[in-house]
Every structure is written in C-alpha cells, then in structure tokens.
Amino acid sequence: MASRQSAALDRKKFFADPVMLAAILILIAFLTLFILYPLAMLLVDSIKTDTGISFDAFPRIFGDTTFRHALVNTLELGFVTSLGSTLIGLLFAYVDCYVKVRTKIMKRLFDVVSMLPVVSPPFVLSLSMILLFGKSGLITRSLLGIYDANIYGMHGIAIVQTLTFFPVCYMMLKGLLKNIDPSMEEAARDMGASRWKVFTTVTLPLMLPGIGNAFLVTFIESVADFANPMMIGGNFDTLATTIYLRITGGSYDIAGAAAMAVVLLMLTISLFLIQKYYLEAKTAATLTGKASRARMLIEDKTVTVPLTLFCCLVSVFVILMYISIPFGALFKLWGRDYSLSLKWFEYLFKHSGLKAFKDSFVLSLIASPITALFSMVISYLVVKKKFRGKGFIEFVSMLAMAVPGTVLGVGFIRGFANGLFHSGIMQGIYGTGIILVIVFVVRSLPVGTRSGISALQQIDKSIEESAYDLGAGSGKVFMTVTLPLIKDSFMSGLVTTFVRSITAISAIILLVTPKYLLVTCQINELAEKGYYGVACAYATILIAIVYAAIVLMNLCMKFFGTSRKIKED
Amino acid sequence: MAQKKGVRIEHLSKIYKDPKTGKDFYAVKDTTLDIAPGSFVTLLGPSGCGKTTTLRMIAGFESPDEGEIYIGNEPINELTPNKRDTAMVFQSYALFPHYNVFDNVAYGLKLRKVPKDEIQRRVTDILALVELSGMEARMTNQLSGGQQQRVALARALVVEPSVLLFDEPLSNLDAKLRVSMRTEIRRIQQQLGITALYVTHDQAEAMSISDKIIIMNKGVVAQMGTPSEIYYHPVDEFVADFIGEANFLDGAFKGADGDTCTLVIDGHDVKVANPGSRKPGDNCRVVLRPEAVKIGEAGVLPAKVTLSCFMGSYQNYHVMVGKTLVKITDSCPINKKIYNVGDDVWLSFEPECAHVL
Q1: Closest Cα in chain A to B112
Q2: Would you call A2 and B24 a contact, using CB atoms and an 8 Å cutoff?
Q3: pTM, rounded to two decimals
Q4: Burial of B18 by CB count in 10 Å (0-12 exposed, 13-18 middle, 19+ buried)?
Q5: Quick one: B184 and B256 in the same domain?
C-alpha cells in the first residue's frame, strides 16, 4: 500500500495544537508518576533484595500462616459479601421495576437507601453495628439481655459490607432492568409461560452478565475494603489489614508488605479486567436501547407482599443503623446511660476536632477542582480525540479503580519516602499535604473520568467539529463548547471527589503524618480505643458536611446546570 | 467579501482499515477535482462511496493518505481545521445547545476578534438573509428543524469562508421542507457568490441545486458534469442507474447515419443517438429513460405488458421486450388508452433519447 502521508499530516496537525499537546503530556506525566510508578515500585520491592533480584519474598509470604489466613479470609469474605449484596440488590431492583408498590413511602425509602452509602464514610456501618450488636449493644444487651455478644469477626464484616455495598448493586441492576423491553416478557407470557418461568427463562438470562458484573464490582470493593475489617474484624485479618499491620506494627516488614500488596493488586486487577473487558461488553451486547413502553407491574399479592416486606425490613434496618450514629454521639454513655448530652461534641472540639475537620476539609477542597478538571480533560481526549498514547491514558486512569487504597498507600511510601527511585528527588512532597491531595486525586479520578466519558458520549461529535471548523483551537473548543455541555458532570465530579476524599481512609492512613489530622483517621483511632461517643460525634458532623455538599451540588445543578436549559422543550 | 477561491484536489486518496477483516481499503482513491470559484458542486453517490470522507478531508477532520488539497492556490494539507478557510454545515446541524441563536451565529466572529458592533451588524444581516430576524434570543431547542438548519447555515455563512461545505444538511428534514430549503440554499449561495461543495445521496436534491454534479462510486469519481449531461449522457451503467430510473437494452451495431445510428435490438432495427467509433457487429448497450418511451399500437419494438399501475400523474408500465424488462412512465394518462397486463404493445422513442454507453 502506498506511503501513509496521513500519519505524518496528523502528526503535524497535532503539534500545531500546543494546548492539546501540553494537556496530554501533563496527563501522561501525572498518571505515570502517581499511579504507574508507585505500583511498579511495589513490584520491584517485592523481588529486589540486597543481593539482587529474587522472588524469595513470595514463597516466604506464602509460607507465612498469617498471610495464608489473610488471603483465604479475604476471598471468603469477598465471596460471601458479593453474593449477599448481589442478591439483595437484585431483589430491590426487581421490586422497584416489576412490582406494583402502593405507597409513595416505599419509593422514598428506596431512594434514601440508595443514597446513604454515597454520603456515608466507609466505616459508619461498622460503628453502628458495634453500637447496636456489640458487647454493650443497644439491641444485644439492653433489649435482649445478651452480655457476651460477639460481633467482631467474619460475620460482622460480611453483614456490614453487604449492607454497605448492596445499594450499588441495586443501582446497577435497576439500570439494566429498566432497559429490558417488556414486550419480550409479554411475548413469553403470551406463549404460556408462568411468571416464574418468564423470570428464569427470559429476565434472568438477559441479566446474567449484569449480575456477574455487579458481583465482581462488589468483590473488588470488598477485597479492597480496609476500614470495616479494621474496625469490626477482631482477629479476622484480611489482606488489606495485614498489609497495614506489617507496616505500622512492630515488624516493619516492607518487602513482605510489598509482596502482599502485589498479591492483592493482582487479585483486584484480574477481577477488574474480567469485569471491564468481558462482562461489560457482554452486558452491552444483550441489553441495548431503551424499553419501548412502560411495563405492566405485578399486582399479585402472593408475589408483592413477601418481596416488599423483605425490602422494607432491610431498608428500615439500614436506616436504623445510620440513625444510631447521631444518637451514639448524643447519649451520655452508650450501653449504660441513655440520657442526652452534648458532652462528646464538647470533647471533640476541645481535643483538636476543629483542626481535624479543617485539615480534611481543606485538603479535600483542594483535590476537588483538580480531579474534576483532570477527569473532564481525560474524558474529552479519550472520547473525542485520536492520538498515540490515548489507550495508555484511558487504561491507567481506569486502572486506578482496581487499585486498593492500601496497595496505593504502600506504593506511595515505597515510591516517595526516599524520593524518586530512592534518589531523594521529590522527597520533599512526602509527608506533606501535597501527597495527600495527590492520593485524593488519584483515588477519585476513575469515577470522574467514567462519568465524564458517559456524558461526552452523548454529545454529537459534530458540535465540537463545527466549533473547530469555525476557527477555534482545541483549548478553545474545550472551554467554550465541551465543558459547558458537560457542566453537570463536572460539578458532580467536584462534589464526588470532595465526598470521597473527606471520607477516605485506606490509602491515607498509611501516608498521613502528625502534621495533619484527618477526620477519618481520628474516627478509626477513637473507635479502636473504644471511645465510641466521640467517634460518633465525628461521624455525625462528617455525614452532615457530606450531605450539605451534595445538597449544594443539586442546588447548583438546578440553577446553573446546562441540562435544564438544554433538555427542556 | 474576500476574493472568491475555488478548491482543487489532486490525486487524493484515503485508506481505512476494515474493522471486520482488518484489511486496508481505499475510501477515496486517486481523486482529482477542480471546483471553480463561485460554483455550486455536489458530491453524489450511494453510502460508503467516499463523498463524506472527501468533504471531511477538505475541512481538515481527516488527513489524506495521498495527494494534496488546495484552496485557491494555497496547499492546505498541513493546516488544522480551525486554520482553514472553510465553514461546514453539518447533517445534525451541530448547533451549540448552550448558546442562543445570536451567540451561535456570532461564535466564529468572536473567535476572529471582530469588534462588537460589527458582530452585531453582521449577525443581524445574516439572520435577515436566512429569514430568522427576531429569533436572536431563542435557544436552539426552541426552533423547528428547518429553523435550526437556517441557523447552522447562517453560522457558516457569517464568517465569509472561501468555501462552504455541506454534509447532507437536509437529510433530517421532512420531504416538503427539504424542497423549500434546497431552493433557499441555492438562492443564498447565488446571492453571495460563494464556492459551495455539497454532499448528498438524494439525486433530486443534487439535480436541483448544483452547477455541477460529481458522481462517486467506491471511492472513485465516476462522472463529473452538469445535471443534464449526467442525466442524458451517463458514462456508464452505474451512473445511469444511480441518477433517475434507467432501462438498458442490448443490441448489435448495424450502421451510422450522421447523428443517429441503427442498432438491431431483439431482431428489430432501432434508431438511436450515434456514439461514434463503433463497427458493425459491435455489441452496444442503450440507456433509455422511462419517460422517453412511448407506448402505443405502433412503434419500433414489440412488447408485452406485465404490470400496469395508475400512479396519479402517470401510468406506470412494466413491459417485456424479449427477455428484457422495460419500465415506462406514461404521463397524464387521463386522455390516453390504458393497457392491461397481457396486452401486446409497440414501443417507440426519439433517437436522441437513447444514449449508447
């Protein structure tokens, strides 16, 4: 075939566009330095010894019973949690989409339940689990009179994780069910299938890849979860907590921790790859387009009553657990003296609580615009532009989703504590607020990018092309056309990052220095020591801040968002 | 207005990879065109023929693999779309949904740092030209499809580009609006004297709007000419079949006589236009338009009616000449004899209506 002049021309045009070139270079540098490099350092650490390259660390940790137990525990927990979450999520989604619900209260209840895990810090349910079912739990001790209740361990974590993650499954599966065309099911009914038969032969097979997807997403979340096992795990150690203890505990076994982190990383990444490239494609292939008509809802009482009852009970239980947090902060002494007082809040503000909130707040606030802008630029480049290195940018920014916080934390320690490649370069950022902000950015980038990509895919390519054609350069097109059109996505990126950052703990707890007090680390520490009242006071204020941020975002979208102006007819 | 410029394309090729087979293929192959300044030229062809790819290469969204594009005498291969003196009207209009009509049209002028009062004047003028005065403050989603199309046109026109590019701009409109909009586009183009390149797959649109039509097929230019040249003197079967309806009759060359010649078709002597340079005995294929054939009791070719259908303004016949199907449209059938299926009839036509390929 003739010489490819187009490649050379594309390159020339590319270099004639300095804004885009700069954006790409900055992004590649950032992603390489703060995602790939720390992970690569982990790999290097786990095989490098004083005498040269050796894989000794791996047989050593696999011979280590603590590690073997942790690995088995992690997988077992992941399996139980994701099974439970997927099933409950599926039930909720089914009731939401298929069952006729009389009252509006149910709908509100479902909305609240799907919203709660978004606004709550990751370990809140563990805290309330202890408050309700622990040794001096409200239900176990005060109501049932059980004095030796033991909520710590696998069952505790599994319950807490299931309750934390099932709303995510619910939202995922609901989206799928909404896309199933009811006429397919009506056709099956019409040919004589019972309702159960329709579910097993039509609905379920169509959903199967989606269910698998939800299962794996939860599995990754569960495996990567650090805060809950830490708080309610007792002697039940998972990989994430074991790695943390290796580093913070007496042994300071960095090579061992690095090798474990590599194992954990491999686990989550392989799950992530299956989920992303196999199941997601399959889900998209079986379910395309929108339902053509509204679905006839099931009114049969033998179906509706048990299903709604179950979902109501779960919802009420979850809400009860959240409510116990502010009460935990208001009661004088949980388990003994249930009279109201503000003493835990007073204690909090007397003991550097204000500084903790200020530090958390400020660092998260700095991370938000950076992440939102980065993720919008990444999605713009990925969706709208052709260039070499695009695959790299997309893959690495998505990869961050599969990296457990603990692994990232260890990677940052190894990568930056002694400077780049242990050379001292950039050592200055270690232990400062900068590195915390960077971790916040890296942790939220995939979420923002995903939302940006899906927002951009709905914008006709020719809208940007016409701006380009009329004389605008890439930067101008992005600022005057693209960004205004995905303003909603940008705003939600801002708030999501803020929320995720202020509630983050897994990576941060390994990197934070005494110079900074972070709310989440404070809560963790207090809960460990058994100061549940103060921990609850912290958590209550934290939830209030997060909730306020989300309300603010919704207000902003309502008044300044593009979607309203564009979508209304 | 700036000096009028034409577009010249020399040996242009674009190679794509087939996503299924992974093999390379030419989307556009060795295409050379010269579009005169101020003329209205249409690229016409079936989908996948390379017409949109050609247009997008001129706009700069795609880079050619071979060849060079000139606007006026300036080669533009290396320019990014924003540096090219072209303005495109998109199929989906591509209006900016977050701007109102005025800001949409003013976008290109603001980028060119035109003074504010001049922007005001030029936008007002151009909106008057496309008959949208008074709509400045509307958001684009408050406009009908035809109005959106006018905004898109105004936005492209207002920057006074050397070349105006149209990418199937009317295909999202309903049939009636399409007809009135194409007259409108033609009127404005004539009024401003701007060079226009128009992509469409609608032949009626192409005929009515263009100075010249370029028929493309499989990435190659099949024919370039005025609408009537293309209709009456197609160079090959593809062009004949693509533009209008065509009947093809095969015959043997018998002898020439000035402007006409005689062919033997289905055993009968038939006079057709003389293609020149044919020898007796050569096989010839004749293109015959359905409206050029007369059906009656006498003529040059005998036929049998296989379909007879009243269509309002004409009677539609299918007849068999030997083993060849011939379609006939007999206009204004109210005063004429209507033949039924199975009737034996005779066909006749003027020699100049029968074009030998």
Answers
A1: A471
A2: no
A3: 0.79
A4: exposed
A5: no
